[in-house]
Amino acid sequence: MFSACPVRRNDCIGVVKLNINMKNKFYFKCITCGKKYPPENVTYLCPDCEKKNNTNCPPQGILKTVYNYQKIKDLYNNENLFQKLINNKFIQLLPINSIQNLSFLKVGHTPLYLIKSLRMSDMSARLELPFQLYIKDDSQNPTFSFKDRASNLVSAYAKENGINTMIVASTGNAGSSLAGICASQNQMAIVFVPASAPKAKLIQIVMYGGLIIPIDGTYDDAFDLSVEATRKFGWYNRNTAYNPLTIEGKKTVSFEIYQQLNKQLPDRIFVPVGDGVIISGVYKGFEDLLKLDVIDKIPTIVAVQSKGSDNVVRNLESEKFISKKSHTIADSISVDIPRNFWMTKGFIKEYNGEWVSVSDEEIISASKLLSENTGIFAEPAGVASFAGMLKFDKLNKINRNAKNVVLITGSGLKDLKAVEDNIIIPDAISPNLSAVKKLISNYQKKE
Amino acid sequence: MFSACPVRRNDCIGVVKLNINMKNKFYFKCITCGKKYPPENVTYLCPDCEKKNNTNCPPQGILKTVYNYQKIKDLYNNENLFQKLINNKFIQLLPINSIQNLSFLKVGHTPLYLIKSLRMSDMSARLELPFQLYIKDDSQNPTFSFKDRASNLVSAYAKENGINTMIVASTGNAGSSLAGICASQNQMAIVFVPASAPKAKLIQIVMYGGLIIPIDGTYDDAFDLSVEATRKFGWYNRNTAYNPLTIEGKKTVSFEIYQQLNKQLPDRIFVPVGDGVIISGVYKGFEDLLKLDVIDKIPTIVAVQSKGSDNVVRNLESEKFISKKSHTIADSISVDIPRNFWMTKGFIKEYNGEWVSVSDEEIISASKLLSENTGIFAEPAGVASFAGMLKFDKLNKINRNAKNVVLITGSGLKDLKAVEDNIIIPDAISPNLSAVKKLISNYQKKE
After folding, report:
1. Which residue, A301, B3, B194, B348, shows the most beta carbons closer than 10 Å to its own?
2. Which residues from chain B sit within 8 angstroms of residue A221, using beta carbons?
């Protein structure tokens, strides 16, 4: 039935058959049962553990990509290892043959800004910070979100394996990202998305030529349906916490942070958490460096969730996972069943991670504060990390001189609805000076 | 009345009194009467010519910033001049004392992408281009538009002269840009904007802490009112084609293009044109390099206007300037009286520039084509340049192997309304495979 390509591209695929030319470069390891798989034998979850999954619990059988770290150390003679990795664009730590197969778009390599002072509330003056605060601004990506890091790698992997059609379930950003990256790579993206996703993201998907499939249901419904479609039609699936390569794309942010801090580790990194894939990517990047003895410890990573969707952090200490229905303005991190819960929990436990949840009000307020103080305008989900940092500061958890990194994951232009209700744009005035005077004195009265 | 600061910042200003410490670094030259002014004597237009202006014609008396080119050549011994300029971040060609006074945000330094193939229509396959096509993607700026280049320089100049409050009239991008850059510099932005500007840009201004003054009127009304307010209240005005420094900020794109092309000149550069300041900036950058003998000619620059607002190109050949009421989806280049008309005309005449106008349909179609082929999603005004390039190609004006640069000036996320009416997001489907099949076969039928 689907032998013909559903779209106007030149080619279509049947069942994914990966053709890996990277002997012994890496293998997949199931984080649940520990079983190892060469990459030509498995594409998504651990086949054994996947069978036991049910839809009310976070899935088991997520795969971690493990490299031959000793071989890399030997190759580079163990000297100046990180610099050699940089010089080779980290190809030894990526599951692809060649950097050339990545998109020509500038993905990642986003700015890391040192913020020296902040006005911490509406009323106060801008004060010098007693600690170091760095903002890693991943809204500066081709499709204006962090997700491009994952899409870029998955797209390159597909290219190397002769795959031209990719499918993804998304709350909006992963979908617009995949559609944009595929556009640049002459590949086709099929995007399952809840119809309620922010309009900007839906428009992006269509503009990039992605084949959009809006679902009358939740992200979880879209996810399940995309997996069914993958099985039925054989498209290559980019879903996070399903395709293990998304984590490998996302981890590049950690390499950059370490590089941009002149090979120093931050004390804390604040990361917005929904299903737990971004934070796992951040951990994985540092873990790779740890296994190569480039660094000797993993920085403290703080998982920041929205109080209205805290299914990761609320379940970290309990025996049994209990899901709570999500309701938050931070739509990209609004998740009922965090699909990468088990890996996230594993990382946090192993490397002494921390966590915090923030209210919608705290997120909106943090967003305004970040914009006003820095000129960086982020979407609610993307700025939850900053709200988490502010909360840590308020609780006096941040030591003097400590080095903090806050990861911003998406542009504010991607979800205007969320802030629109919380700001005031005054009514239009007549074009004359006395009206200007009146408007400005109104501003003054409010101060 | 306005002695108190209208906002919560620490400081406010009275009348602008510039305190220039850059003896003989540059002077201003009136492009109308040729009179020269040291920068401490004049801030905006040539005082003599300004008196003769009336609101129905493009203003006379625009100032050009002229450097002591011989001194720069001597300083650098005339050897490897361009590389030395790069090493010094072009400080010798900027009207500020120190690069340190620019925003900490990464302004400019945007990617220049070589596009190797395009699908030129909905039906065709993606074909290799017979010429070189580069996209300069200035949507990758802190506030997601080209305007940050101007705001950054004006803000630095203000900082060096003890000014903390800036004012601007804007169709949206210049205002959101000034607000964002000022936020990063702890300065205050007061933004006069037509109330009809795209919502995204209004929201950005407020989020960045800018004091927004929506005008019940056009951009021209906002402009005039902002100039009145400048005279009355003494704020420093960033208006384009009024403050000569905006061109100096914008010209940096030309330095980057020349650098990114490995010190080669393109054959053509396509630039979206509204009031003519961006294109004048592009010319000015190359003119600086010409005067330094870094290059021996100016590339052909193509002014691309919207047919619904072609007040620059329609008047290039006529004796008398005749304005036509604008109506186009490309809001940022929708201008009745192009304020930098005379300088633009001068540059185009002197350096054999070319021009073309494109319809709204051509702009929308070009926008879709660019997004689908490259993953670069630009706002209508920002992508008019690409529509112009496509038109030149259709008219067989582009030679084989010619090197073309298309300047993209703003993110598509800044003006979604414009594309929303021209794309179809299908209705939501129930989350089951047969609904997926049906939707996809609908897509196929349409192909």
Report:
1. A301
2. 431
Residue B218: inside a domain, yes or no? no
Q: Which of B204, B263, B123, B101 is nearest to B411 (CA)?
A: B204
ipTM: 0.93
Which pTM was predicted? Answer: 0.94
How many independent structural domains does chain B possess? Answer: 1
Which residues in chain A have Cβ-Cβ distances shorter than 8 Å to B425? Answer: 202-203, 206, 212, 214
- Which tokens is A155 given? 């797209």
Range of the domain at A372: 112-143+246-419
Residue at B96 is within a domain: no
- Whether A334 is in a domain gets the answer yes
Burial classification of residue B84, based on how many CB atoms lie within 10 Å of its CB (0-12 exposed, 13-18 middle, 19 or more buried)? middle
Contact: A431, B222; criterion CB under 8 Å: yes
Task: Say which of A10, A214, A437 has its CB closest to residue B425.
Answer: A214
**Contact between chains at A429 and B214 (C-beta distance less than 8 A):** yes
Per-residue pLDDT of chain A (447 residues; tens, 9 = 90+): 222 234 333 334 444 555 555 668 999 999 999 999 999 899 999 999 999 998 789 999 999 999 999 999 998 887 799 999 999 999 999 999 999 999 999 999 999 999 999 987 665 678 899 999 999 999 999 999 999 999 999 999 999 999 999 999 998 999 999 999 999 999 999 999 999 998 999 999 999 999 999 999 988 899 999 999 999 988 899 999 999 999 999 999 999 999 999 999 999 999 999 999 999 999 999 999 999 999 999 999 999 999 999 999 999 999 899 999 999 999 889 999 999 999 999 999 999 999 999 999 999 999 999 999 999 999 999 999 999 999 999 999 999 999 999 999 999 999 998 889 889 999 999 999 999 999 988 887 765
Helix spans in B143-218 (H): 148-160, 173-185, 199-207
Asked if residue B178 is part of any domain, the answer here is no
Q: The domain that contains B138 carries what CATH number? A: 3.40.50.1100
